[in-house]
Structures are given as structure tokens and as C-alpha cells.
Amino acid sequence: MKMFSVAHKTVFVVDHCPYMAESSRQQVECDVLTKSRAQGVIPLAPVSKSLWTCAVECSMEYCRILFDVYPKDKLVNYIVSDSEFHILNTWRREDQSTHELMSALAAVGPPNPREDPECCSILHGLVAAVEALCKITELQHEKRTALMDTAERVANRGRIICLTNAKSDTHVRMLEDCIQETISEQNKLAAGSDRLMAIQQCDLVLVHIYPQGEETLVSDRPKKEISPLLTSEVHSVRAGRHLASKLNILVQQHFDLASTTITNIPMKPTLNVCEQEEQHANTSANYDVELLHHRDAHIEFFKSGDLHMAGTSTRENGVKETMTLKWCTPRTNSIELHYCTGAYRISPTDVNSRPSSCLTNFLLNGRSVLLEQPRKSGSKVISHMLSSHGGEIFLHVLNSNRSTLEDPPSISEGCGGRVTDYRITDFGEFMRDNRLTPVAEASHDPSGKLPVERAKAQLERYTRYWPMIISQTTIFNMQAVVPLANLIVKEALTEEDLLTCQKTIYNLVDMERKNDPLPISTVGSRGKGPKRDEQYRIMWNELETLVKTHAGATDRHQRVLECIIACRSKPPEEEERKKRGRKREEREDRTEKNGSKEAEDKSWQESERLKGLLEKEDQESEVIKDSPDSPEPLNKKPRLISEDVQPPERAKGPATLLSMWTNRITVANSRKHQEFFGRASSVNSKFELYQHLKEENGMDAHENGKATR
Amino acid sequence: MPTVVLMDVSLSMTRPVSLDGIEEFQRKNLAVHGLNMLFEHMASNYRLEFTALMAFSSLWELLVPFTRDYNALQEALSNLEDYDKTCLELALQGVSSVVQQEWGNGCPCQVVLVTDGSLGIGKGSLRHSLQTLKHRGDDKKFPLPYPFPTKMFILCVANAEELQMTDAMENLEELLRLSGGDGQIFTVDGPLCMKSVQAMFGMLIDRAYSPFHAVLHCGNLSSDVQVFPRPEPVVVDEEVEPIPRAVSTDLEIVGFIEIADISSPPVISRHLVLPIAVNKEVDEVGTGTTDELEEEPSASQMAGKSPNFCVLLHGSLKVEGMVALVQLGPEWFGMLYSQADSKKKSNLMMSLFEPGSDPLPWLGKISHLGPVSEAAENPYGEDDSKSPFPLQPQVKRSYAQNVTVWIKASGLQTDVQKILRNARKLPDKTQTFYKELNRLRKAALAFGFWELLKGVAELLERECTMLPDSAHPDAAFQLSHAAHQLKLASSGDSQYAAFDHNIVPMHTDFSS
């Protein structure tokens, strides 16, 4: 259906002249006495609706279905006509509800039978209807504004549904002529106005209503063209249920609706479809409920020509068809993503019948039902699903054909498929942080950006530095960095945020001072990874990279970067100083072969060489085995036994159960015997034997507590 | 979008073509050459397409059912035999049944008709079929348009001048129009030879079988991808927006949503999103030399080892049970999600929503979805126990708001009985009694059904007289009060008949 087809605007013109106050002569027994109370009570005489009441309630039913299925932009303008016209609402979206119309109708009240019939005519209303069709709707206005130079693409078509009691076929012709005339007049007027649009097509649907038991004075006539702008059709219908079913058919025709009957709805208490309120609670009956919806929900059947098979049935009047779908257990769950080719709003035909309200309440409570299509072969094909989304029920069309996308190459076979250490969990966290939420249209951002643009901007900020695999990053594997990493991506930082970032940095400095191990990945690098110093250098570099990408955002972001630069520059210097200090001692002990000039050079060379050496070593191992060139480790001093057994640096790493157990046993055992002299005074668990021989030879037995060769 | 290749094997296809007097070819040979080229291209660049090969003359035959095995298709081409005259209508009928049997009637299909433009004579010829189009019974309808969306490509091993000498071109154009108009007629440019036929098939490849390459962005993270099948341009409203909208080659993720929140949305098409290595992007038309074939595995192995955003995204979407909302163009969106097939092979998929600003009513306008961080309070709750979706419509639907419909007598009777039932349980049910009474009153006033108000007033008065001795004294007061109010309303007096006015319980000494 085109956006601006005749269905965009519907004008109801309902006759409010004195003869509409006449009884429809269809009687309703509203005093249904139960057997126990029947004795001695005279039942109330049945009531009967007037032609007016019939017309109003059927038109309201038409609107109810229309608004259920098309809550937006299929508009109704309701006009009542007697000695003058009364326009009950406007094209505006907020006026489009049955409640608004009912309220306005109550104010109009039933026709006054004592009014002078000569002054009253449906013509007042029809003229007003043509005028109403020329009025521009919100959607027409929006589209015309949006299209600018192609604004002429916005068409103005509409339909007039006239519920009246006509006198004769000549009377009908007179009404048609009058409408035709009014259209040409109004179109001229509209040509010179901004708020009016000329009518390009108008469909008149004239429904002649007459009381039961009377002969009709007006004959039915199918749609015919009165002029290029106007078509007209006449339906002559008896008031009461005939009128109701006529308008039900019309609403389906006018808005491309189709009918589906859900069968086999279990109203067993166990399924909770209905509360156990039935008189015979033990018997479980299966109920049928008829729903109306856009006919595209049946597109598969229409195309395959299957509409006449077992699933469909033609009603007694031979006009309306309904497609049968079977309620299907088991139910589906909400976290399943069905391949759904369409979802159409529904409206129950018999909205307040018990089975209907049971079904709709069941769905409104958030449950979904799969529906099965009856097939000749008896095979089970699930073709539809009923599901509610936020108080609206939709009929989903599920794809039941073979997929052309079957058997695709798995994602693990394609680009990047062999990589195994993606930061899946971290990206999951990232997705949670970047979930979307509806933002009220009113809340306007000072930047003038739409919420969705702001969402994209946030994604941009969050991904400025985002390594995809675990082995590419250090900082994102560190719990200690989390507070900063979470804050730095923000558009603006508060003073408190800044403080947290700074604290995070100080904490890292602290970690470095304590020489805490870092989760540096050893994947890819040969050997056992870089040394602790180098690890921290890598970490600081990475952190700096992350913060740099945000430093330009605000002053506070910049200050985080400054903090990093300030903090990281210190520790390497300290290290350097320490190293040099150590070197100096060493040199003093050795013979003064080297000039002081070479010292720095050498220390650099040494540190480089050291790095190379270290790469081959366990990153946890801090003790450098005696290589002649290596600087002396600080802690290589004779120690007490217990310390030696449990080196402090190892305690920093996570202690294993074995090491804890061994320690315990060793400590316990050590209490039970006196330690060997050699072990007690050993250095690095080594003790030189036959020391007295050297002493006798007058040589230095020790150098810096280390045994020499 | 599956393809059916419909190859004309009538005798006229065996007409010889002289190529500068050097060698003699039949038109069939040229057509087979062109199709081979198409199949080779598909094998290297459009591998996932299902293709079937049908041959037709006065009868038709399915030579190769839908397959991705392009060797089998080429093999069948090399074994074509020659038959009698051309009868297109039957063959088109055959296409319809072959397609529907395999894919149902909702799956868009491409039909590649290869012919020489001599479309038969007499009964069964295309001319005859088209002439008799309007004089047919329901059982003998012309097969076009097909029930499934169709793209019809007609490749004539003949040049345009040749076709225009007869009415062949006109008939083919009519055929294309009947198929729905989405397609094209290709003719050979210049004299018939290998080269010109190649050029014609090259045009078809460009038009329908060139892979759709795009870049998937998520902020600064991105990946080169192929979207398969090619997303087709969509016409939103033929009148307001007649120019079809095409999917942008930059697919921008705007944010993420839980699967339960997006809840099986309707989509217009589904596509695989396959990450591709950037350097491979250059060879659009596979030249297929042996050198390259040898190099390819190593190149793809390399690509397999370098991290790709698609794989990361897919993994996290799968683990978290979420979808990524992706912008396809101005006011056009889709979703990315992980899809597992029956063999538990999983893939990144993209579904396209209907173009427009609010394709899913339960999400609202997509342009008005913003980052969670902007909300004062996390709409998902601190422990993910809540969700801002689905959005509630401003006005409740009729089935969600206890509307009054009296079209069937039973509806009216139920409402009256409900009032009477509660009337008998006064004063316990005072609230419900007045609620039901006011509902009936409102509807009766709107429908101008004053007679009913009087009737119900009488019923209440009768109930009042029938109250048992044991009844609470308040019951009688409330009943006569209610009856009186209904009578006043039925008078139409604006003071009592106002729609928004409600009858309130009478204040008595008993009700406290």
C-alpha cells in the first residue's frame, strides 16, 4: 500500500437526522435470567437499538480494528450530519483513538426525533467531508517538507464512508453529484492555499441502512467511476448484525486485511491460557479465535494458491475467508532469534469474547505462541508466531523454506579464524557498555546531534585504542588499570574521575617499585618473555598510547596524560642510578682498568646484553647465575637459613600448594635437628669445601661473599 | 539468490557463425563459452550461489539441480545435445516448478535465459504465447510473473540489429516486463565472435554476480567484508520515493541490543558477512592461472592468522546473546548476529530491516536510541535485571484496554449480567459494581443507546425489591442510587449525561 493511497484518509459521515432515531427492530434480550431466579420474576422487555446506535457502534468497530492494525498514519475524521455538520475530531495523530471519538459521540447524543426533517440532511456532512479531505495531514506536511522540490510526489487521496438512510437511487445519485461538484470547487480553493491540498482521488462508499423487516429503497451497486476524481459504490444493508459484518468486510477491503483463525487453543488450567473459572473446570475444550491483520501475513498462501486447501474456509456469506493456523506446543523462548520475514499487528474480530481475551491476555503477559500450518501431507510446518511487544500483539511470519545460505564456510575457516586469543569477554563487556536505550525526543543535546550519532561517537571514543587479542595487550589484562581504562574513554571527566585516574597511575608506580609481576604475554616471543623492567616499559608505553588518544578531549584528559609522563619518567632513572651505583662498587672492587669515560658506555652495553640474556631466562627468576659480567644482584648476601629456603621474590608470585607444603615441612624438620655447618653458612646453597687449604695458601677465599674459582 | 540458467538447445542454436573465415563455430558454442566464463567467475568470486542448469527446446530438462559445484555445471555444458524447436513458455513453466520445489515461493531468484533470439514459430512460440495472454483460463495461465521475486536476465547470442529485424526484441521486452521488470536484456555488441560474447557475459557478471564488498565499522575497529548474497536496492514507496535505496558500502555499527529485546524482528533479507583479506580484494574477476591458485592457500592461511574484527564481534555476540545494530544508509538499519546452522557451524549474519526511521515499533525511532551512559540511571539496572525495551505504545490497543463492544447480543448480555452479579453482592462488591456500571454507561451514551440505560435502571430497581431480608441495608441504597443516576443520564441532560462523568457510590452511614 502506498503511503498516500486512499487509505491514508478516511472520513466517516454518519447521518444524525431524525429518521435515524428509528428502531432497527433488532431486539436484544439483556435480561437473561438464571434458572434459580426465574420464578415469579417478570423479565425486562428486550431493548432494541436505533439505526443511529447501529451505525455508530459499527463505525466504532471499524475504527477499533483500523487503529489496532494501523496505529499511525491511517487517519479517520468523523463527521455527524443533521441540520448542520459536526466535526468530531481532526486528522491530528492525537485525535486518532476510539476513546476520543466515543467521548465526542456522547456529546452529540442520539438524533432528536422531534427535529424538523426538512432542515436536516446528510449533504451538510458530505460537503464537510470533502473539505476535510483537502486539509493537509501531519504526515503529508512532514513528507512535503522533507521532499522539498519533489513535494508534488505527496498525493492527496481519501475515502468517504457515508452511513445514511437514503430515500432512493435518485437520492443517491444526487448525493454523488453534489460530492463531485464540491470536489471541483474545493480543488480550486486548494490550489491557492498552503494548508490545503487538491483531491486527486476520492472513493465514496455509501452504506444505506434500513430497519429489519423493511424493503430496501436503494439498490446495491459495485464500484463505478463517476469522474476521474471520484468513484462510488453503494451498499444497501439491514441494520444490526448485517451492518456489522458489512463494515467488517469493508475494513478488510479498505486496508488490505486478512483473517486468521487460531484453532486448538487449549484452555486447560495447566496451560494458564484461561484461569480456572469455567463452570466445568475439568473439561478442557479447545477454542478458536479469529484475528485480523495485514494480508501480507498470508502472502505465502496467496502465492502458492493454497488458499483453498484444508486450512481455509469460506463463511456463510461467501465473502470473507479465513486462514486456519493451529496453536502449537511447545512454546518458544524469547532468547531465540527466529528468521522472521514479516510482523503484522493484529486485532481480534470479537475483541471481548472470552476466548479472544484469554488469548490476548496470555500473549500480553509476554508469552509467544508458534503456529502450525495445516498441510495436506500431514507434515508439520511452523509458519507463524504470535508474540506481543510492549502491549501490542504481532503475527510474525516465519520462514519455512529452505535457506539459500545453508552450509556456509564457518567463521573459523575465514580471515582471522585461526586466531584463538580474541578478547571475547572484554568485547562482551564493551558491547554491554555500548548498549542502546531510547532517549526522549525532547531531551536535546547541546551539540545538536541525534542520540544515535552520539552512540556512534561513543563507539568511536571507546575504540580509539582497543587491541583485539590478549597477546597484543598488557594493560587490558591488568585489573589495576581498569579504573583508568573505564574513565578515560568518557567524553568529559569530573574532578573525581581525574583523581581516580591519578590514583590508578600511582598504584602502578607502586607496583613497579615493588616489582610486581605483569601479565605480559609470552605468546609469539621465543623464550620466556622480557624482563620485569622491560615489562613495565611496555606497560607504560601502552598506557600512554591509550591515554594519548584521548588527551585532546578535555583539560582533565590532558592532565591524566601528564601524570603518566611524570610518573613513568622517574622509575627508569632510579633504576639507572641503582645500576650505576652497583657498577661503581664493582669497579672499586676490581682493578681500575677502565677509564671513567668508558663506564657509561659499558653500562649501556651491559644492560643491552643483559636484556638479551634475560630473554632466555624465566621471567619469574630474579637470580642471575654467576656470569662474570653480570652486575651483582642486590640480595646476594649471606642469609639466614629460613630466608634462603623461602626466597622473598618467590613469595611475591602466587605461591603454589607444593611450595607451601614443602616450606612447612622444611621449617618443621629444621626445628628437629641442628643444621649442618656447611648448609647453615652456605651462600646460595653452596659451601666451599676445604677452605682451610686456601687460607693456608694465603688467598682470598671470598669476594663479596661469593666463592671464587 | 539462487540462479537458474535456462539454455536454449533448439536447432537454431546450431547455426554456424563464421569468424573471419578461420574457424566455424555454432552459436551454441559461443553461448557455452560465455556460460563457462560465468561459472568460472562464480566458482572463484560468488561461490555460495546455488545454480541450476536447465536446457530447453520444445521440452525442457533439468540437467543439473541447484548446486554450488561449478565443475558439475561446466561438465553438463560440455555434454549438451541439439534438439528441435524453441518453446519458451513450457520452459518458463519448468523454471517455476523447479524453483518452487527447491526454495518455496518467497525466495528471490535470478533466471539467466540464454538464447539466440529466434523464439519459435506457430503454437508454442513466444509470439503466440504473448498474443494469447489475455484469452486464457485459470488453468492455463502464462507462468510469468512468478510467485517469487524474479530477476530475469536474457542473453541473446545475436546482435540487436538482428533481433530488431523480426519482432523478437519486442517479444523479449514484453517477457521482461511480465516477469516484473527487474532484469535486463543483453545482446552482442558488433559481430558475433568469442570476444563479443565474452563481453556480453562480462556485463551480466558486473550487473548481477560481482561480489558486494563493504567495510564493517565499529568506531575505529573495522573489517573488510563480503556481504552475500548481494543486498538488493529497495524501493520504499514507489510514489514518494521512487528511487531505490542501496545498501552503503560502509556498514556502521551504532550500538548493541539484547536478543530478547530485539525479539525476532521482521527482516527483508538475510546475508552472510564474510571477512575478507584486503589484498585479495583486487582480483575481482578470477583470472584463474595456476600460479595464483598455488599461492592462494598460503595467502588465506596468513589471513586466518591475523586478528579480524568480524571474528571478535561474532564471538562476543554469540557469547553474550546480543545483536549489533548496524546502519546501512540514511534511515536504514539492520542487525548483525551470530547464526549457527544445524552442523553447529557458526557465522556472522546480517539481516536488513525495512528502510525507514522506525522499522521495529518496539524499539521506537532508531535515530532516538542513544548510549546507556547518557541515562541518569542505567536502564538495564545494575545487575542487568531490567530493560528499556520494549517501548510501550502511547495508546493501548483495543484488546489491552477492556473496550465495550455490543455488536453481538452476547457482548451486551455479559456486561449487563456482570453488573447484576455484582449488584447481588453489595456492599462487598461496591467498587466493581460501579466500575462495570460506569463502563456500560459510557458506552451507552456514546452509542446513543439511552434505551439501555433505562432498561438497566429498571433491572436495578427490580433487584432492589428482590433483596433478601438478610441483605445489608447499604445494598438497597446503592441500587436505587445507581438506578436513579442511570435514568438521569438517559434523559440526555448535559449535567448527568457527560461522557467523562462517573457515577460514584452513594455515601451512606453504613459505608465507612
UniProtKB/TrEMBL annotation, chain A:
A Gene Ontology biological process term: cell division
This protein's record includes keyword Nucleus: yes
Compartment(s) where it occurs, according to its Swiss-Prot or TrEMBL record: Cytoplasm; Nucleus
Predominant location: cytoplasm
Residue ranges of the region described as Disordered: 571-654
Compositionally biased intervals (Basic and acidic residues): 571-628
Keywords carried by this UniProt record: Cell cycle, Cell division, Cytoplasm, Mitosis, Nucleus
GO cellular component: cytoplasm; integrator complex
Pfam families hit by this protein: Mat89Bb (PF10221)
Keyword Cell membrane assigned: no
Similarity comment text for this entry: Belongs to the Integrator subunit 13 family.
Name of the protein this chain belongs to: Integrator complex subunit 13
Source organism of the structure: Xiphophorus maculatus (Southern platyfish)
TrEMBL record, chain B:
Places the protein is found: Nucleus
A GO MF label: metal ion binding
Domain Integrator complex subunit 14 C-terminal span(s) in chain numbering: 404-511
Swiss-Prot/TrEMBL GO biological process terms: snRNA 3'-end processing
A Pfam family hit: IntS14_b-barrel
Coiled coil: none
Domain Integrator complex subunit 14 beta-barrel: 209-356
UniProt KW keywords: Magnesium, Metal-binding, Nucleus
Record CDD domains: vWFA (cd00198)
Record flagged with keyword Zinc-finger: no
Primary localization: nucleus
GO cellular component: integrator complex
Stretches assigned to the VWFA domain: 3-117
Domain of life of the organism encoding this protein: Eukaryota
InterPro entries: INTS14 (IPR039841), IntS14_b-barrel (IPR045814), IntS14_C (IPR046471), VWF_A (IPR002035), vWFA_dom_sf (IPR036465)
Family named by the database record: Belongs to the Integrator subunit 14 family.
Assembly and interaction partners: Component of the Integrator complex, composed of core subunits INTS1, INTS2, INTS3, INTS4, INTS5, INTS6, INTS7, INTS8, INTS9/RC74, INTS10, INTS11/CPSF3L, INTS12, INTS13, INTS14 and INTS15. The core complex associates with protein phosphatase 2A subunits PPP2CA and PPP2R1A, to form the Integrator-PP2A (INTAC) complex. INTS14 is part of the tail subcomplex, composed of INTS10, INTS13, INTS14 and INTS15.
Protein name according to UniProt: Integrator complex subunit 14
Organism, as annotated: Xiphophorus maculatus
